[in-house]
Structure formats: structure tokens, C-alpha cells
Design a protein that fits this description.
Blueprint: H1 2-15, H2 26-34, H3 38-60, H4 68-84, H5 90-116
Helix pairs in contact: 1-2, 2-3, 3-4
């Protein structure tokens, strides 16, 4: 993962060595290098950051009783920060929340059905 971020940093900042770019312009520069839209580049960069944070937090809290709670908290915080700096839109967070609720709801219903059928 470190090599991945190193490669991204080299491509983004190496190709624009004479330019001083801000944090908001990183997806645009990344998109220019790859030849894709800046919003798509922002989603790709955001996904890499969120996955890295989720894996790191999951590894750090793997021995705790419920490692999902710190992961969800850290993912929400990272997504909020990425939305605040303009890399992703609020609609992406809403889609992720709906998908997460659907997964948790299905797991809860399956748990209720399996515990209720034994009685």
C-alpha cells in the first residue's frame, strides 16, 4: 500500500513539479495524468485512502471484542474529511450509508429468523 501511495505521489507531484498545487487540485492533476475526469480521479484516490484506513484500523483493533465499530467510525471520519476538501460528493456517502444499512439489516433479519425458529 505504501508503494501504491508512493507511485501516486510520484505521478501527481512529479509531473507537476513546477506547479504548486493545493489539496483540492490533486484529483484534477491525477485525472490529467491518467486521462480521466477529475471526479473519477477523486473517487479513485478517495477509495484508496478509505481502504487503507479501514485495513489499518481493522488490523489495529482485530483483537477487540467488536472491531467493526472503530472501522465504521474511522471510515465515516475519513469520508467526511474527503467530502469537506471536495474530493468526493455527498451523494457517495449517502450511497455507502444505504449499502451499509442494507447489509446490517439483512444480517439482523437473518439472526432474528435463525434464533426465532429454534423456539
Amino acid at each position: 500500500m505504501i508503494a501504491f501511495f508512493g507511485t501516486i505521489a510520484f505521478v501527481v507531484f512529479g509531473t507537476s513539479a513546477a506547479l504548486a498545487i493545493g489539496l483540492n487540485d490533486v484529483p484534477q492533476q491525477f485525472g490529467n495524468v491518467l486521462g480521466i475526469d477529475s471526479s473519477t480521479a477523486g473517487i479513485i484516490l478517495s477509495a484508496a485512502i478509505v481502504i487503507s484506513v479501514a485495513l489499518a484500523v481493522g488490523q489495529a483493533f482485530s483483537k477487540s471484542a467488536n472491531p467493526l465499530i472503530p472501522q465504521v467510525i474511522s471510515i465515516v471520519a475519513v469520508l467526511a474529511a474527503l467530502t469537506a476538501i471536495g474530493w468526493i460528493g455527498i451523494w457517495l456517502i449517502l450511497i455507502i450509508v444505504v449499502a451499509f444499512v442494507a447489509l446490517v439489516t439483512k444480517k439482523t433479519v437473518d439472526t432474528i429468523n435463525s434464533s426465532g425458529s429454534g423456539g
